[in-house]
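Submission sheet (multi-component)
Chains listed below:
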Amino acid sequence: MTAAAGEVPDTGASFRAEIYEQPDALIRLIEAPATAAACDALAEGGRRTVRLVGHGSSDAAASYGVYAFGLLPGWTAMRDSISLTVYYDAQIALVESVVIGLSQSGRTPDVVEYATRARSRGAATIAVTNDPGSSLAEACDVTLPLAAGPERSVAASKTYLNTVAAMLLLAGSAAGRREETAEVIRTTAEVLRTALPALEEAASRLATAFAYVGRMYVIGRGIEFATAREIALKLTETCRVAAEPLTATDLVHGPIAAVDALVPVWTIASPDESLHAVKDAAARARDAGAVLIASGSAASDIDGAAYRLPVPPAPTPLAAPLLSVVAGQLFAAALARMKGLDPDQPERLSKVTLAP
Amino acid sequence: MTAAAGEVPDTGASFRAEIYEQPDALIRLIEAPATAAACDALAEGGRRTVRLVGHGSSDAAASYGVYAFGLLPGWTAMRDSISLTVYYDAQIALVESVVIGLSQSGRTPDVVEYATRARSRGAATIAVTNDPGSSLAEACDVTLPLAAGPERSVAASKTYLNTVAAMLLLAGSAAGRREETAEVIRTTAEVLRTALPALEEAASRLATAFAYVGRMYVIGRGIEFATAREIALKLTETCRVAAEPLTATDLVHGPIAAVDALVPVWTIASPDESLHAVKDAAARARDAGAVLIASGSAASDIDGAAYRLPVPPAPTPLAAPLLSVVAGQLFAAALARMKGLDPDQPERLSKVTLAP
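Outcome: structure written.
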């Protein structure tokens, strides 16, 4: 039922190939001269409030950006409301802000419109996109091309990882630590390359137990909340599982009431200062009867997990999301294949979302 | 199976009584001298960046605050990361910020800790809490008591509505329009009082069709995203439905792939500039086979809805969430009763969440 590493399955071939291409894609990003130029523009721009805008996987990466900017240069970064500016035309002062528009296609209409309006009102604007010829790139002062190469699967993998890495590089540069940050990403890429085959095998074995699961919660906190969001999105779009991402604390502020043996809870456990909150939420979910999946490099710290999908340690806590999300990508790929679904072409989704 | 208005059911009696008490609670809030004092302190404090922190229903109200502050005084308000400051001790400049800590009990540990640290680092701090003697009130410079009266149901209703109203009053005051804003809330409270009995009857009739629903999406955008979050939370905690809130745009960036005839989609339709996005998302969900519930005062604008639960028009777009959420509260109360669940005491929840 599961595909061995190296074998090309009928469905999801692009998704799987692109997951495997991620180490190379990360290295392309850190080595591209355009990356350094965009990082310098941000670091030298003198604006210390960052407004991140994107949807779907790009918005998950924006969640990570809040932590990268908060922890490296100590800047305030927020996932800004797009509708306040685009729909309601709110007159918020933007001249002291730098806007980072996130869109792999560069064609998400309201992100392009947000960037256009923010620029006309005095914000500095940076496009982070896989298409440097896109309308988002045109709308912004500076472009940081993702350099991920063409992504054919509708379910994103390498563009997500490179967007997270771009956030880390931009934040590292803002803290005057661009080269050191690039080296952290390079090391992480090599750790990932080595880990991929065994991780795929483990994820494929695990997926067999989840063929009939209709809903899940995916729990992360802090730096890893982005990972929880992205894994939940992969499960939802490729496997048709209604997976909802929650912070460890949000779980116990309501949704824990809906948890029982029919709702598996996936926890992202990385060794940082938020781990105790994830452990506490996991214990409460287990007490409610939930089957626990523990992933991340601290997966062994989650007591009573029925399944574990550990990844190797990252060189720094901020690099952990580049590894921990891959367990979820590979699990989603395996589960989709088992269910006869095609992650390359999920029903009702397209590579460029042109919704309002 | 449904309770007529005025009849007291065995379970959820407090939840229902507190839903009915909301018009009075709103009026207590706008008439309390402490409300005016807290509003003046914010308006005169000279800080125009607002950091909102809370969990659960308080965090849903914070989503509303982002719009109220963006649209009335044109200030930047964000739902700030609690873990950046409390777990990771990030060194972000806070001296130009005003922190608004939201907690009905005033005892949410990480919200209290966030406020304490932010205050010691130079932020102005306001507690919005139903307990002016709580540790959150102690930790902050200024307290805006919710004046909702004792809330006995674990599932919040009147403290949520008064927190939303407090956000509106604070934002209105920041724009120099406190008295006008208070009058809008007063009018809205009277509209709600008149609407309640018929709305309860309609919600109870509607709930009978949802006894076996395990998961739902709740869709709002812009000003009404807070309502989508709060209705989803009510359904999850009181009815054990895995209800996930999504912006209209986020639905089509992934989760639409998991929608089919087994996943009802609840839409909040209010007559403002985001309505077209909600209409578009609703059309896509309907095309995927979903049963649509349309609520809000523009419920009739959602084409092809199987069920409608309209509320009367609000006096201004920013007041709409004070009415539209009540349809969800009453639906959750009716559905919980039908399923034999007790919204006053959901399993595994307590009135004060002391999680990390």
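Remark: Chain B has a mean pLDDT of 94.
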